[in-house]
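User: Quick sanity check before I run a bigger batch. Here is a single chain. Can you write out its predicted 3D structure?
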Amino acid sequence: MNEFAQTSIPAPGGMNVDFEARVDFDRLRAYRLGRARHALEQSDLGAVLCFDMNNIRYLTSTNIGEWARDKLMRFALLTRTGPPVLWDFGSAAKAHRLHSPWLAPENSRAGMTGLRGSVAPEAGFFASTAREVKAVLEENGVAHEPLGLDIAELPMVFELQALGLEVRDAQQTMLDARMIKSNDEITLLSMAASMVDGVYHMIYEALKPGIRENDIVALVNKRLYEMGSDDVEGVNAISGERCSPHPHIFSDRMIRPGDQAFFDIIHSYNGYRTCYYRTFSVGRATQSQRDAYARAREWMDAAIALVKPGVSTDEIVRVWPEAQEFGFADEMEAFGLQFGHGLGLALHERPIFSRLNSLQHPVELQEGMVFALETYCPADDGHSAARIEEEIVVTADGPQLLTLFPAEELMVANRY
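Assistant: Done. Predicted structure follows.
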């Protein structure tokens, strides 16, 4: 590592201004739609029908809030030959016609399938949706080509097939499109990370005996929304004996003197997400805790040192320990600990780094990829553990970090 983490990736203010070039949202929308069109042209699909909220946002630059993510009632269609068509929740369609002029008014429509089965298929909404989709496919001359579908309820699939449409997987096509980020996307990812930089300083000051894991989660949520986050997807807060094995969920455990504690902050700014772990000790640190942290940092630094265009993910994961070396039966059980994943509109995009998949199915790193690398090391005291995560942009000159809160060595909060 350098003496301290630095980056040349900008993190400008959230408001666009007349005296600096910041994020150009028209350019962002054009880039994303262009990437999706290119991926569609490279596939054997005539169109993609998307229910995945991240794909809908990528195609249409619309969003109606995190509450809609698991409802599967919004959907968007992109054909090889036509503009994107969006079906949205009730009055949201009318709002888009007023406030989203990049969508043709006739292509912002109200739609509904059944709210994950709350309205039974017998009501006919799946069938009417399938007919509307087929009509657009016919208008654009692609009704006889395969239709890609990313995620959907089975009744939707059945109704599309009943109309003679050949349904195939579109998620791979859309993930291909989203894999390489534009400068505007990278700036938004940097802004999201800069917000977490500040939140970690708040945690560092608040981390004292008597505060609970859920208290920290509440503070983080409040501060991020104050800073302009549009979705705090999750805050992992893990301390003391809960650190090993990693439970992946916070509790109401009270922080005690000498605890090791790690946190993961997952939120989005204008849709672009973070995944950002940091580890602290509270008041004091044992040698066992320091040793675990040093190993996790060594594994992280070895991985970052390899990052550049042309390197493949199998080369990265080979510098990480095998599952048995840090106390797990196999790579499936250890999945997500020595780990990496693309970041963008979703928490997990391409590429994915893990000994579970990357050794047999490596992916070559390309300029413009953005991903998070994570390492985890249990301490030999039997309960503490260290967790570190860095978000990285692949550039022609190598890696650039987005995550700048100090992580070169174990930080002790409120040292005694």
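The chain has two domains: 25-178, 183-413.

User: Great, the batch can go ahead then.
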